[in-house]
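Allow me, if you will, to draw on your knowledge of protein folds for a short while. I have a record of one protein: its chain in single-letter code and its fold written as discrete structure tokens. The full record is reproduced below for your convenience:
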Amino acid sequence: MTNRCMSRRAFASLAGASGATGILALTGCAASSAGASEADASSTQTDSQAKAASATTQDAPLIQQPLDNGYGTGTHHATMEVRGYGTLSLELYAGIAPITVSNFCQLVSDGFYDGLTFHRIIPGFMIQGGDPKHDGTGGADRRIKGEFSANGIANGLQHKRGTISMGRTAASYDSASSQFFIVQQDRSSLDGQYAAFGRVTEGMEVVDAICNNVPTQDSNGTTNPEDQPVITTVKMVD
């Protein structure tokens, strides 16, 4: 699979990566080269799964302001330990995405991510985690306003290698919840379409090792539960 193909399909891929709804699968390059839109170049789960996931997303309350937890301004730091791989050091920019950062930090403080996994891995693109269902269909008990330009909110953070951003559904800009992804290689096609909110300052070798060693089942990065790298713990530093 070439990087050119992955770039053309990046939007569709992550649009299916939702904090509370079903994932969309990548299709082959032929669909994109035929002129199909990136959203149309993806396919949903079964109808019953999609309907159930959609209901979950709609029912979750939408957070449109930063949480009152001290993480809605400034720059913050956290560490993420991945069993058998090592530790990621994270820098989080509330000055760019205050709703997203305050939500992520609250989930970290609540221990939400401890024991979850990276359930979706696409070498040369990204790794995705933060789903309590471990299959791309789960999330927290709330969703957040999408902080990116396509949703009317300025966000100049680019999806460079090491950037942390929120997954969402194709159906709604305001569907992100707990699922996040870390970009392995620069992916400018995601800029303005997803809520980038931080970056990995140390430990990108962990992301590389996951991409290089974890077996996947298809081009959408699906992984078997027993192969999913476990997030042992995430801790706030400041």
Notes: Helices lie at 3-15, 29-33, 47-59, 98-109, 204-213.
